[in-house]
């Protein structure tokens, strides 16, 4: 009787070990397949962008979020980012280039903490950057044009992220509205102004509108 019990225990132990091995193999295969998957880069636009006119130049500051959905062996390299703003009505499309990355800082010694005490400074030249799940990127990109004669209107914009892989570029559309008053202020003053797409009462069409 004792030998029979011991034999049954050994048999049961063998089956448990076999099942555990199969489960471990399945999980190992699943993890391996996950590591081999496309990182699936995602690009999200911010709710706010800033615009600055300085002399004959106009700059648009955009801070996208660039990330990947999965933790894979492959990482994604962003090679360049391009900005377009196309007027819906007749007009010439300005030609933007990625000038630099910046960061915004506040002069806390100023008597009044408002937009006049908020400035930007150079962080990095435009250059390729790596994106991994553990390292999402949120660079503040300054795009500049010397060919935009500011005029009121509705503009269709596109932020295009080009990648080193053979995958197609990622495009994120948006729209921007400039009123006659906005253009008057922008052309009369150097400095930056903010546009937002989430302010109640000023979210027509989901576009970026002047914000004070």
Care to give the gist of this entry?
It is built from two helices and 13 strands, in the order H-E-E-E-E-E-E-E-E-E-E-E-H-E-E. It is of the alpha+beta class.
Please specify the SSE layout and strand pairing:
Blueprint: H1 2-36, E1 41-44, E2 48-54, E3 57-62, E4 65-68, E5 76-87, E6 97-106, E7 118-124, E8 129-131, E9 140-145, E10 153-163, E11 170-178, H2 180-188, E12 191-196, E13 209-211
Antiparallel strand pairs: 1-4, 2-3, 2-12, 3-9, 5-8, 5-10, 6-7, 6-9, 10-11, 12-13
List keywords for this structure.
212 residues; alpha+beta; seven-stranded antiparallel β-sheet; 2 helices; 21% helix; globular
Structural features, described:
There is one protein chain. The chain has 212 residues and is an alpha+beta fold. 21% of the residues lie in helices and 42% in strands. The longest helix has 35 residues, at 2-36. The chain is globular, with a radius of gyration of 27 Å. The N and C termini lie far apart (89 Å). Mean pLDDT is 83; it is low at 22-37.
Please tally the β strands and state the result.
13
Distance between the termini: 89 Å
Taken from the alpha-carbon principal axes, the silhouette is globular
Strand composition percent: 35-45%
In N-to-C order, the SSE pattern is HEEEEEEEEEEEHEE
